[in-house]
Amino acid sequence: DIVMTQSPDSLPLSLGERATINCESSQSVFYTSNNKNYLAWYQQKPGQPPRLLIYWASTRESGVPDRFSGSGSGTHFTLTISSLQAEDVAVYYCQQYYTPPYSFGQGTKLEIK
Amino acid sequence: QLQLQESGPGLVRPSETLSLTCTVSGGSISSGSYYWGWFRQPPGKGLEWIGSIYYSGTTDYNPSLKSRVTISVDKSKSQFSLKLTSVSAADTAVFYCAKGAGTTVAVGAHWGQGTLVTVSS
Question: What whole-number percentage of chain B has pLDDT above 70?
Answer without folding.
Answer: 100
